[in-house]
Structures are given as C-alpha cells and as structure tokens.
Amino acid sequence: MSRIVYVNGQYLPEAEAKVSIFDRGFLMADGVYEVTSVLGGKLIDFDGHAVRLARSLRELEMENPISKEDLLQVHRELVSRNGVEEGMVYLQITRGAPEDRDFVFPDPETTAPTVVLFTQNKPGLANNPAAEKGIKVISIDDIRWGRRDIKTVQLLYPSMGKMMAKKAGADDAWMVQDGHVTEGTSNNAYIVKGHQIITRGLSNDILHGITRAAVLRCAEEAQMEVVERPFSIAEAQEADEAFITSASTFVMPVVAIDERKLGSGTPGPVAARLREIYLEESLKQAI
Ligand code: PMP
Asked: Which domains does the chain have, with CATH numbers?
C-alpha cells in the first residue's frame, strides 16, 4: 500500500509528492524537523514536540506556518489514513523554495515555507527486542555546530557517527566534547551510579529531548535522584548502568561503551523500570 503523505496543505500518495530542487532544505539544510511516536494509534508527547518545533523555527527566524491545532489535525489524519498503530510521524519545515539559490534568506512574503509530514510504520516499537538486550555504543568526537538545541535537518555528522558505530560492531555513538559526553547521534545519554541518574544539563550543546524531559519527570515522581551534570566516557564505563532516550527508542539500555561492558553486560534495573514507567505514563496521556 502506498503511503499517504502531506505536502504544503495536500494529502498525496508518496510517489506524487514533490518538492522543488531549489528548496533550501535540499540545498542548505535550512530546515527543522520533529519526530513524534505513535503507540496504539495515538501520538506520544505531541505537545512537547509542537512547542520545540515553534522554538526551533523562532531561533532560525522562520515563520511558523501552521498552528498547533492544525498540526495536530494533520498528524492525526496521516496516522488514520495510513493505519499506523505503532510508528512515528516525521515532520519537516524548511525556509521554502526561492526562485534561485542564494545565501541570503528569501523574503517570507514571496517564499512560503515547505511543510512535509509522513508516517513510518514500525510495528513492535514498544516491545522492541533491543530493549531486552541493550545496545552497544562507541565514543566519537563531537564536531557538530554550536546550536544543537535547534532541531535542524543537518544530520550528516550524526549519520556518519551511526555508520562509524556500525563499522565498529556497535549500535550507536556517544559524542564527546572537551572530555565530556554531549549526547548520542539521535538521543540523549544517561548513566546511573548508586542512586543517581546522571545526564548532561540543557544548553546549546545538546538537543533538549522531549523524551528526556518526560523521563526525568517520571524519575522524579518515582523518587529517583536526577543529577544534571556532564560526565566523561571513563566515568560512564565505571557506572552501574547507562541508557539513552528518544522519541523512537523511549528508554533504551546501553550495555557496553567502547567495548567495555557495564556491570554484567545486561540491561540494568533503573533503565528497565524507567522504560516501563515512561511507556505507561505516555500511553495514558497519548492523544
Ligand atoms: N539528541 C539528538 C541529537 C537527537 O537527534 C534526538 C532525537 N531526534 C534526541 C536527542 C532525542 O530527542 P527526543 O527525545 O525529542 O526524540
């Protein structure tokens, strides 16, 4: 079955959906995105994603072309038309397609943003077997730009990082800057030592994960101690547990860092418990 996607106000079969070659998303990575997960046919953390999208657009001086209500409606319509029970909705907004390539931003009066959404069907997203086994990460230098808090479509280095991990027989990479872990290629990074859950604090150095915010709320409600501070790879290798969070992996245990096993090399109880609580809570609040 061909997917129905959304492009600039229209619902179309994916093969008929087109964007100009002059689109600044294509030529300059001048665009932002969001990924919202779908469980039981409902959207998880939609509000958080809509708020972050508005912020990303504002930081790049792009007008927000779609209201939160309309955005919710388009998300729901796509989930319904494509019969998605478990999966994701990908959304991208670019600065649009001016008549020619130019470094100068086009006049928003004459160049409308491009808005694209599509669904990704992923049956078994919540019962992902990887969560039972845990994932392995390697460390790599963080050589990305200085505004990682803006969710732009400049994903070349994270994509290269994922390939470096695959080549090394691992699943993902944790990026390191000035001796401290910033985040994973597409997720936020955590370690657990004793009673503490440790994760880097929010700044321009990392994406302000929507799952991160929700998981930290769950942790605090469950009386777990959360400490927001940087940590090194050496400290992480000595931790009791480690895990990552993102909209598509929820809470995913990390069992090895640069080939060094954490503890027994199996997922730890804190990550497993947080995954359970987060999934339970977010399903309750799904819309
Ligand atoms: N950091 C980076 C670099 C990411 O790409 C992502 C996921 N897009 C995250 C963190 C996690 O963010 P979220 O929980 O909002 O998916």
From this structure: 4-121 (3.30.470.10), 130-285 (3.20.10.10)
